Every structure is written in structure tokens, then in C-alpha cells.
Amino acid sequence: MSVRVNFVGSGDAFGTGGRFNTCIMVDGRDVRFTIDFGGTSLVALNAQGIHHNTIDAILLTHIHSDHSSGVPIMLMDAMLGAKRDRPLTIAGPKNLKARLEEAREMLFPGSSVMEPKFPVTYVELPVQETSEFLGLKVTPFAAKHTWQTDPTALRVEVDGKIVAYSGDGDWTPDLAKASKNADLFIAECYFYQKPIKWHLNYPSIQEHKEEFGAKRMILTHFGPEMLAMADRIPEETAFDGLIVEL
């Protein structure tokens, strides 16, 4: 069986072009997980007819709304409406559980008294160390992004395939480590020409393309300037609902 990657959400933080926040769903032989789960992810999953109760794990690159705030919303529905009964693993940067619980209470005041009736396991992912769970090998690398988010790029091995994702962040040599020989490297590309702090843009992608060293690369997380050019560049570009087989 091949590994299947579904760009459930491929947009930036602000819904440019009507796209959903980042949510990259990966199906292996025995596991379904997402890389990031932005605030619109439940809407995006519902639009594709995918039930979130089928997800075994959520891996987070950093704690920004468009990459993580869908988790508290999912947990609330899992407890109240979806009646989830299967385990869920949530993995990401340090202080993960406390930060997500704080976000849930902020979004749903009073919800802190609620406890899931299904097992929830929080896994903090040490940078440049490989953590193994659910048949996955997950290695985070430090990213050059807003430091308060504890930003990382992720390299995930599943069923002998490697999926790497830059998360948000400007170029650093660690991105090349994360993407080296990956079967798929997913790279944010926020702007076409405009340089913007703490993000990759298209000139950065072109400059470092060979250093990424992946077998295949797909660009995502487009702002307005980049989205207008998405059909004019030779690189593969993501869109909501894009599915690739590895």
C-alpha cells in the first residue's frame, strides 16, 4: 500500500483565495494522521466528507492559530457531538498540553471542567530527536519563525516513506536536514517576490531548491501575491483537496 497525502487545507492564516488553514492528512497502512490542524480544519474535513474520528494523531509544527487552533475545536466536538471512543495522540512543541488546554478554555469558556472519555496522549517532540509512536518516526528541526510559537519543521517516516514539512519559517540549514531524501517535501511559500520576516518566499525556494534534496516538492501556504502566480511557475503547488500517492 502506498502512502497517501491529502492537502485538506493549503491556505495561509487569513483564508487567501478562500483556502482553508493548513491541514495535511497522511494515510499509512495502519495509521491516519495530520500535520497541523488549523482553525478551519473541521470545516475542511467536513467539506471533503472525512470524519475527524478517523484521525489517530495530530502532529503540530508550531502554536499559531492557522496551524493548531482547530485542535481544541475538534476535541470539543469529539466529546460533545462526535462521541469519539478511540484513542487520540497529539504531538508537538514543548508545553503542548498546557497551551492547547489554555486555548480551549479561551475559545470555550467553562470547558476546562470537561474531560474526554477517550484516551488522549500528548507527546512533546524534542528538537532533533526522533520520537516513535503509532508506527511513526517523527523528527522536528528548529525553524526560523516567531520564537514564542516554538516553531519546527517536521520529518515523518511512515511505512518506509518520508514526508517532510517546513512549517512556517525562513530558510535555515535545518530545513535541508528535514527534507533530505524525503519522498515528499512540503514547503511554505508565502510570497512570490516580497521578502517577509520568518517565512519562505519564492526566491528563497529557488535559491535553496537543490539543498532541500527531496525527491518531490510541493509548495503551499500562499498569500495573495503568490497565489496569483501559482499557475505560472514550474514547481508543483498545493490546493485544497489535492491528493498525492507516494
Explain this structure to me?
The protein has 246 residues and is an alpha/beta fold. The protein is built from 7 helices and 14 strands. Strand 11 (184-188), helix 6 (202-212) and strand 12 form a beta-alpha-beta unit. The longest helix is centred in the middle third of the chain and has 12 residues, at 96-107. It is globular.
Uncertain spans: none
- Secondary structure category: alpha/beta
For the biggest sheet, the summary is: 7 strands, mixed
- How many structural domains? 1
Biggest sheet strand line-up: 6-5-4-3-2-1-14
Question: What fraction, in percent, of the residue positions are helical?
Answer: 10-25%
CATH architecture descriptor name: 4-Layer Sandwich
What is the secondary structure topology, with strand pairs?
Blueprint lengths: L3 E6 L13 E5 L4 E4 L5 H7 L9 E3 L5 H4 L1 H11 L7 E5 L3 H12 L12 E5 L6 E3 L2 E7 L9 E7 L2 E5 L7 H7 L4 E5 L13 H11 L4 E4 L3 H4 L8 E2 L4 E4 L1
Parallel strand pairs: 3-4, 4-5, 5-6, 10-11, 11-12, 12-13
Antiparallel strand pairs: 1-2, 1-14, 2-3, 7-8, 8-9, 9-10
Helix pairs in contact: 3-4
In short:
The protein is α/β, with parallel strands linked by helices and 246 residues long. It contains seven helices and 14 strands.
